[in-house]
Amino acid sequence: MVGFKKVLGAAMGLGVGLGIALASTAAFAQTYPNKPVRMMVGFTPGGTIDVVARIIAEHLTTKLGTSFYVENRTGANGMLAAEAVAQAPGDGYNIFVSNSSTITLNPTLFKDLRYNPQRDFAPVTTVVSVPLILAVNPDDPVGGKIKTLKDLIDLAKSKPEGVPYGSAGNGNITHLAFELLSDRAGIKMIHVPYRGAAAAQVAALSKEVTVIFDTLSGVPHVKAGKLRALAVSSSERLPALPDVPTVAELGFPGFDVSFWVGIFLPKSTPEPIVSLLNKEIREATNVPAVRAKLEPQGTILTQSPADFAKKVATETAELAAVVQKASIKAD
């Protein structure tokens, strides 16, 4: 009987302790935020990730009455910023605004990574998804003859030595997109890596390479006739180029290679804060003024924390398979 009382007492104590902890967490979440919130970005100001972060920060500052500010900690494809947030307290005052590569690609490319995305971060939501534009230079002696994706594939099959394409760097998502397309189409292409998407675009415009998977910065060049868009890499057509088909439409079902911008918190962040930020950000994307600012950055895409976590896990596995098959190594 004495033993039973001890067990019962311990259980009651545990229950009281758990209840106090839950109450404390709930109370903490109710007062959040009550001081400035840092939104860490691993890339330079002016790029897609930075712009999206600043749009969301501006809205949250107005809506929640506390300053949300962006800090750019650049370097190592977002890894420095990721490490900083992964090691930060899980109190909701350190937010990581990331592209997909830092979360789903870096773990495969870099064996000495000092953070584990699925272990160290709590996904909040994606904000935008950014497709790639498969494009050629219509003034290029070779590229000018390519009018469709089929033309590109036929050309590649006729050239055993391969067709040169430019990417934003070894292991970049633009590199993986070509590797996946080459594998699906059964063709050989020659990878010419550049230091960023802007440099790869310049290479296509100056006729250094035949074809590129460009970012949305290529849309004005397409509309001006300086680049010819053959297809887009996303599962749906790009609103800015509604007449350009998807790769999937052109005989490669399931082809969907885009990079997204998403919001993360340290893993230990209380669930009520994760839910609050998910709610506020998703509601922000329905505000006309916010949507107008976000739409030039990509297709607006938000989801629940659970669905975002599944997306991260699935994409990480898919990209790892592409990297392994193509024997891609980090620079």
Structure description:
- It is a single chain.
- The protein has 331 residues and is of the alpha/beta class.
- It has 2 domains: 32-129 and 259-326, Bordetella uptake gene, domain 1 (D-Maltodextrin-Binding Protein, domain 2, 3-Layer(aba) Sandwich), CATH 3.40.190; 133-250, Periplasmic binding protein-like II (D-Maltodextrin-Binding Protein, domain 2, 3-Layer(aba) Sandwich), CATH 3.40.190.
- 45% of the residues lie in helices and 18% in strands.
- The chain has helices at 2-31, 48-64, 79-86, 100-109, 117-120, 149-158, 173-185, 197-205, 219-223, 271-284, 288-294, 305-326; strands at 37-41, 68-72, 94-99, 121-131, 133-136, 163-167, 189-193, 211-214, 228-232, 258-266, 299-300.
- α4 (100-109) crosses α12 (305-326).
- The chain is globular, with a radius of gyration of 23 Å.
- Residues 20-24 have low confidence and may be disordered.
